Amino acid sequence: MAETTTEFDAIVVGAGFSGLYMLYELRRRGLTARVLEAGSDVGGTWYWNRYPGARCDVESLDYSYSFDEDLQQEWKWTERYPAQPEIQRYLAHVADRFDLRKDITFDTRVVAAHYDTPSATWTVRTEAGDRLTARYCILATGCLSVPKAPEIPGLDDFRGPVYHTATWPESGVDFSGRRVGVFGTGSSGVQAIPMIAQKAGHVTVFQRTPAFSVPAFNGPLDPEWEREIKTNYAERRRQNRASEAGIVRGDNPQSAHDVDDEQRQREYESRYTKGGFGILGAYADLMADQRANDTVSDFVRQKIRERVTDPEVAERLLPWEYPLGTKRICVDTDYYETFNRDNVTLVDLRRDALETVTANGVRTARGEVELDCLVLATGFDAMTGAVNRIDIRGRDGAVLAEKWGAGPRTYLGLGTAGFPNLFLLAGPGSPSVLTNMVTAIEQHVEWTGRCIEHLRTHGYRTIEPTVEAEDGWVDHVNEVASMTLFPKAASWYLGANVPGKPRIFMPYAGGFATYEKQCDEVAEQDYRGFALK
């Protein structure tokens, strides 16, 4: 295609929850903006992840925008936990309701973003060769948007179809009567396996690391509960923003050691039967004290034993390698019960080592399993993957991927030194994936919008973190993480799922409310830690 150049006040990369709201916010403040989206529609991760059973682990009434009261009131969720098709319809509705599509270019992958110091502008280049320039470049690329290539020997030799949960065919897949092999038992696998098993002739689950999962107890949204929330939605949203998890889960300030075993069990049972990850709020020290965490981990392990008929299979499904919550806890519908089906087999790769994928199946130390197709629920190159895919160059030609070579470096997760007017939304160094993502996104978008307006009102051309502030924030993020149990898990929070990726704890573990307070204080103190020129 012939190269074209177009100028805007801001360019936003990505049209998921953060990109759509950022566009709305920029428009509201009178700026021109263009959103560039690789997919054919809005939705971000919810556009791509169409696998069977794909569903959010945050309740629908909280996993939604709060910026428009009419939108909150008019949209009717059908289930307690929204499924991918409903989230996709919701985001399409938002895009149409606020006429956002006219400023979005779909089927457009951004390959480069270069900063020009004399003009103080960014030039963004697309895969098709188009060039767009803007004062501000805003990355709404998502934390879970780059599928991770699996390290499975012989995968290219397999003759049957191979499906990755993060790039699922839009037309769907018919597994009827087929022998299906599944790799991956994180959130995507936990959701997909029960659905695939309902149709497939046989499902073989190749498990490397068992997951901690709790039941969702999902179902149709209770109309009375919906009315109660919507009557005072503003207060619900305020409570979410004032919480450490970005969502109301009834966090208990007590220590798990402050009560006896019987009382602790009652608390866990009460939260477990309500469904969802509210169990993590049962006691204040579950994510900081190993002995406290042992009590809730043991409780959930016992629940797994109760849900699986075969005691030997149940034991193989128990996670022992890491404390509960140090990997994002899964929220499931009939995951463990699926292993009670006659057409489901668990292969524990810790005991039965994987040798290779063959033309007709998978060979382990105990022999070959013949299969018709493979499903890879192997996750993402999280938090930094999408950013590092783009050739981003800042002042004096500094390459962001090189700067982040030993791990991401940001100030507040909002910007990075040497890259003026580059804003990150819900990226590394912010609470993001440890919270309700929509709460985190709204806070970041609103902070960014106010910041840009401040720059324009006061005649500043550029803003970027100082090296000192960035160093201080990186140290703080590491220090806070070291005070928790999170580093005990080889999780994607640390990049441990991607070979060669630096093991750095990327999100901020200090809690959402604490983080937002710090961001607000920075802005109130004339953007302390940022250089404004």
Structure characterization notes:
With 533 residues, the protein is an alpha/beta fold. 31% of the residues lie in helices and 17% in strands. Strands 1, 2, 3, 4, 5, 6, 17 and 18 form an eight-stranded mixed sheet that branches. A five-stranded parallel sheet has the order 7-16-8-9-12, with helices on one face. Strands 13-14-15 form a three-stranded antiparallel sheet, with no helix packed on it.
Summed up, what is this model?
The protein has 533 residues and is α/β, with parallel strands linked by helices. It contains 16 helices and 20 strands.
Largest sheet: 8 strands, mixed
Shape type: globular
- Compute the separation of the termini in Å: 37 Å
- Beta content: 15-25%
Structural class: alpha/beta
Measured as a percent range, the helix fraction is 25-40%
Number of strands: 20
Low-confidence segments, given as residue ranges, are none
Radius of gyration: 23 Å
Instruction: Give the number of helices.
Output: 16
Determine the oligomeric state from the structure: single chain
Mean pLDDT: 96
